[in-house]
Amino acid sequence: MGVPVYKRILDLFEAEGINTLFGIPDPNFVHMFLEAEARGWTVVAPHHEAAAGFMAEAASRMTGKPALCIGTLGPGIANAAPAIQCCLVENSPVIFLSGQRARVTEQRVRRGRIQFVKQMPLFENSVKYAASIEYADQTDEIIREGIRQAIGGTPGPVYIEYPSHIITEELDLPEPLTPDRYRLVNQGADIDRVAEAVKLIRAAKNPILLVGHAVHTTRMGAAVKELAELMNCPVIQTSGGTSYIPGLEDRTFQYVFSNASIEAVTESDLCLALGTELGEPVHYGRWRYWVKNEAIRKWIYVEQDPTAIGVNRPIDVPLVGDLRGVVPQLVAALKDKPLSPAPGLAKFMKDGQDELDQLAAETLTKSDGSGDTPMHTSRFVVEATKAFPKDGIMIRDGGATVIFQWTYSMCKPHDVIWNQNFGHIGTGLPYATGAMLADKAATGKSRPGMLLTSDSSFLFHIGELETAVRCNLPLVCVVGVDFQWGLEVGVYKRTFGQGTAETGTHWSKEVRFDKIGEGFGCHGEYVTKAEDIAPAIARAYASGKVGVVHVAIDPKANSEEMPKYAEFRTWYAEGTQ
User: Fold this and answer.
1) N or C: where does the chain have the smaller number of CB atoms within 10 Å of the terminal CB?
2) DSSP structure class, residue 70
3) How far apart are CA 37 and CA 21, in angstroms?
4) Pairing relation of β-strands 523-527 and 20-23?
5) How many CB atoms lie within 10 A of CB 360?
6) For residue 131, what are the CA distances in angstroms to 96, 124, 370, 495?
7) Which residues have a Cβ under 8 Å from the Cβ of 91 and sit 6 or more positions away?
């Protein structure tokens, strides 16, 4: 007996260690969904295909592997378009597998065809690779090329069509190849360039490690920890690399949003950049805080995509390769003689903790919600992040509330999921679902998650509360509520002054997210005072249900008093970087 195409597709993904699938089944996929579930896959059907795409994106971040999202032909895959674009900008390797009408139907000259549109042209400019499995015997080569493209060079999404005429066609093929048989796996850098890099590292007096998003999506935390300890230097997080590596929490600082990071960057004479685009949020590594010592600072850049080298700034030693291959090379080369501690490291660590303590104390001077003024957003963030569970997964969403989180967060989670590059709000709830389910599928452990978000963003995909409840996730959604688009209200005020009309930025004050949550089967909490946030979160986790904690916050503070907003705006300094 041959193997049907839908089973072969699952075989090929299993060979990559992929065992999660997100999407809504239609006639093209019912065979695949049943088979995947029978094999023990985590199969999740959300309430919107965009949410399925965001779930798959979060899964790829949590596992370091490509993820799989299914889109029904026509409207289903069209609904996934926001997630496809997001994956492109966020560099997330998600395979979007879509159904399509049989080719005999597609190629006829007809009008009025049901649930049909030519899909390939819609997505070709939003993915790294687009293809259609026209014939059954193309299955292996197209799926493999999709995976190869998704994770090769700069990672990103691919689109593959799966026309209905080949669903159950059978193939007589050997077992799928292991990944190392058909693509580069854990590619190391040129050994001579590694030697050059080590020479620069040993000569540096004030080195820093600049860690980006890919350090965490490749799951290379343990190896980077070893490298940081050998270099004896501070670790600077990009805005996309905000997960803390276990064991390095005290020496890790957020670029710009930690004062210790600014001093470390300013004084550095060598920067080893790992898993980052060196983009606008770090001022391309050559503007603002990088200006001092620019003449003497050396740059080592570990980057998988050779076309990215030297684009945003000159690089002294490019190490072209996968972090999973290059970081162990650097560790091995430095192991015989670790560096002496960087002169300012102890001071940076003390200053970093002092700043957090001062910020927590400062918020005590802000409104706690017990008087005539609702709770200040900084109080909301401090109290909520103090209640973050040990070994939890942090998911961020929202506009103004995320900016408050950059400065006022009191926790140092090892996994943080948020939409940094594209700035697509509303991803939080699907991100939480995808990340937590993929993590459990990969590790067998069910870790608690906290979604710290705002009301406007939470409403985007609030229907996915049902998905989280159905999947029995230990998730608590803490929602700051000011009944407005906080960032946009702030833009009106900064543009036109106080008292201007704020068209399109306010909405009904009758909404109660705790009650909405209860309607979906969640545990709901309504909070107006800062002192009640932590107990409400604790009760939500203890309930054994998905939790929704509605926290009333001050609309004026949320739109006008965002911390270090001027720093955030420098990301958009048109033409000056």
Assistant:
1) N
2) E
3) 9
4) unpaired
5) 17
6) 11, 9, 59, 46
7) 154, 155, 156, 213, 214, 277, 421
Buried b (16+ CB within 10 A) or exposed e, 47-82: bbbbbbbbbbbbbbbbbbbbbbbbbbbbebbbbbbb
Q: What DSSP string runs through 124-161? A: GGGSSEEEE--SGGGHHHHHHHHHHHHHSSS---EEEE
pLDDT 10s digits, 204-257 = 999 999 999 999 999 999 999 999 999 999 999 999 999 999 999 999 999 999
Alpha-carbon span 125 to 78, nearest angstrom = 14
Looking up tokens 């997960």 gives: 243
Helical segments of 181-272, H only? 191-203, 213-217, 221-231, 259-267
Q: How far apart are CA 360 and CA 77, in angstroms?
A: 45
Which of the 8 DSSP states describes residue 190?
A: P
pLDDT of residue 576: 66
439 neighbors 393 (Cβ within 8 angstroms): yes
For the full predicted model, state whether its pTM sits above 0.85. Answer: yes
* Angstrom distance (rounded) from CA 570 to CA 572: 5
If we measure between CA atoms, which residue out of 237, 233, 236, 238 comes closest to residue 206? 233
Do residues 96 and 57 touch, judged by C-beta distance below 8 A?
A: no
Question: Are 293 and 161 contacting, i.e. CB atoms less than 8 angstroms apart?
Answer: no
